[in-house]
Amino acid sequence: MPEPAAPPGAPGDSPFLRACRGEPHDRVPVWFMRQAGRALPEYRAVRERHSFEQVVHTPELAAEVTLQPVRRYRPDAAILFSDIVTPVQAMGLGVTIQPGVGPVVDRPLRTREDVDRLRQLEPDVDMPFVLKTVSLLVAELDVPLIGFAGAPFTLASYLVEGRPSKSYTRTKALMLSDELTWHRLLDRLASITIASLRAQVARGAAAVQLFDSWAGALSPDDYERAVLPHSRRVFEALADLEVPRIHFGVATGELLGLMAQAGADIVGVDWRVPLDVARQRVPEGVGPQGNLEPAVCLAPQPTVEARVADVLARAGGRPDHIFNLGHGVLPETDPGVLEHVVEVVHETGRVLPPAAVADADPDQVPAEGAARG
Amino acid sequence: MPEPAAPPGAPGDSPFLRACRGEPHDRVPVWFMRQAGRALPEYRAVRERHSFEQVVHTPELAAEVTLQPVRRYRPDAAILFSDIVTPVQAMGLGVTIQPGVGPVVDRPLRTREDVDRLRQLEPDVDMPFVLKTVSLLVAELDVPLIGFAGAPFTLASYLVEGRPSKSYTRTKALMLSDELTWHRLLDRLASITIASLRAQVARGAAAVQLFDSWAGALSPDDYERAVLPHSRRVFEALADLEVPRIHFGVATGELLGLMAQAGADIVGVDWRVPLDVARQRVPEGVGPQGNLEPAVCLAPQPTVEARVADVLARAGGRPDHIFNLGHGVLPETDPGVLEHVVEVVHETGRVLPPAAVADADPDQVPAEGAARG
User: Fold this and answer.
1) In a 10 Å sphere around its CB, with 0-12 CB exposed, 13-18 middle and 19+ buried, how is residue A284 labelled?
2) Interface mutation vs chain A, best among B221, B227, B307, B327, most A CBs within 10 Å
3) For B3-30, how does the pLDDT look when each residue is reduced to its tens digit (9 = 90+)?
4) Which residues of chain A are under the pLDDT cut of 70?
């Protein structure tokens, strides 16, 4: 007698989680980085009354803006509305998010003494609002919730620079000049990230995405020596939870193999590397997430459709592809375009059975329509 | 009877020009992008009395700041001190360079009508100060002068956005939405760049570097379709001048092969791609320029020396390598470090004879010292 079927849409059965595990499923899953946020009029309506930090710190509001894109786009996953610096901000490190600037740190961390100020995160005490948000969402959602955290390097870049940077000069200077302090800093940030993600999973997050957003500023050698061991520690410390682990950074084409080595099940790919090329840079068993150029969503519909078809074709119908943008939704995006992208991915994306994947010619398979816009 | 030897240091005989042509020479040539500028106290002294634009627009000052790093570092080439937007600014397009911001355009170009406002550059009329600067420098220098211009895409990114951008949203939206206007814009910008570079060479610039600084924001497909034809036209229009042509952009690892196809003799490589990997992405006959991570110059001396050795080792002793940073000198750099880098490159870099290059094991050759910092 078969076991009772899981209710439709329940997380364990979802195309998103099946794709994360490389298991057969019946449609290409799709979600968008920054699907919640400024592209949505209903988000802007919330922000007219509340600051970004108020939204993040108020579970009902954070849950509401997380749900907004799920209602509108019907994607295959939701992602916790939060910020990379939320845990360290919640620990009292003097981080504020300045409109039009980004995270600003009162006293940037640059010395051994500064690093010694960093204690361990106690999620229940320091950021109960995040955990409450997760609980509210898990009760509400019929798609999996992705937990969210910044990777040690990207967190360090904010805390060392003191504000968003283009060149990461101070961060790199510390990394290259004082290895002991550097590794101590990244080790503590890894512990904070582990605590945050474990707590999110304990409340029901069904997968996690570790954002090493700015790791692409590093050479492969520097990444491997100074960053990879700490990101690996984060992923290893989540292994027993048995939730899929996604790893993403912008402009990390040269680092994809190393980022997979850190222990990710899925590696996010920005639009600079064609998905079939990206596939060759990661080991068998690690799937790609991505990688529609976000600016394509500002183009006319035939171009959007052709580019979606190109991403699907380059994904080759393999069951471990998760459709996404190559980076976050641009604020200028018309939500109707994203809604259409979800429809097109669901209608035209084909997931081949494992036996067929091995034989498939990626130029022939699996999306309908022209491959170029 | 042999022809009379060229005087020592004369351009035709210089290691830099020989390297550009892939000819044998006796030392690895080195110069630094942004070698003139804020890292030098003598430059800051000039800027205390004059704005950036005054310096660029006054031949004696522009020549002086171009010469400052040549006197101090003894590099193998000088590069004209100028800005990517100088020609379009000189044409009266309402471009100002705002301190701490960068180029700002009064009326950004976004429509067909805007593009039709772009006339052809007349270098002798529009920017006689640039040509005078070149003439002053050529009379003074004992190393080759590299002429300088922005590539069509990077120029377009400034003119369409109206100010420096991180996402190039409006530029990409135009590129993806209105191909006719886009190509008309890039065609006109290519003509401006050609006129500027031809005029610089006519006054004695011995090589040119075309900066497509922001092309790395594009996917290979978009670059190939929307940008490459225009950069190719620039390089083709310079072919009869028989000066070496260098092409560089930041974060262009995925585009190196296409940028070489545009017609460059040398392709600049930023620090994200190891030089031996970069070599595999460009055709035989195109040499690499680069690629020390600029932030390494903020590290202790042993690290600097180890990283210089690593770049030299990965260059494999081939005669077509030009040592440089992977991007511009960071303002925080101690000039003494750059002076030392030039010495180390000249003392430890080895240029193998062509026959030896074919047999060489890149792991064994040619720099002294450890390959990793």
Assistant:
1) exposed
2) B221
3) 334 344 456 789 999 999 999 999 999 9
4) 1-12, 358-373
pLDDT given for residue B168 in this prediction: 96
Domain positions in chain B: 77-268
Has domain A33-268 been given CATH number 3.30.70.260? Answer: no
pLDDT of B356 > 80? The answer is: no
> Could you tell me the fold of the domain covering B77-268?
TIM Barrel (3.20.20)
Yes or no, beta carbons of B332 and A293 under 8 Å apart: no
Using an 8 Å CB-CB cutoff, list chain A residues near B329.
none
Q: Which residues contact B39 (CB under 8 A, 6 or more apart)?
A: B329, B330, B331, B332, B333, B334, B335, B338
Interchain CB contact of A269 with B (< 8 Å) = no
Exposure string for B58-75, b = 16+ CB within 10 A, e = fewer: ebebbbbbbbbbbebbeb
Please give the torsion angle defined by the CA atoms of residues A57, A61, A63 and A66, in that order, rounded to the nearest 10 degrees.
Answer: -100
User: Which of B27, B73, B76, B83 does the annotation list as catalytic?
Assistant: B83
The secondary structure of B163-192 as a DSSP string is S--SS-HHHHHHHHH-HHHHHHHHHHHHHH
Task: Output the pLDDT for position B224.
Answer: 98
| Reported pTM | 0.92
Q: Is A158 a catalytic residue?
A: yes
Report CA-CA distances (Å) from A45 to A55, A61, A139, A140.
12, 12, 24, 21
ipTM of the complex: 0.91
Strand-pair category, B102-105 with B95-98: antiparallel
Other C-beta atoms within 10 Å of A362: how many? 16
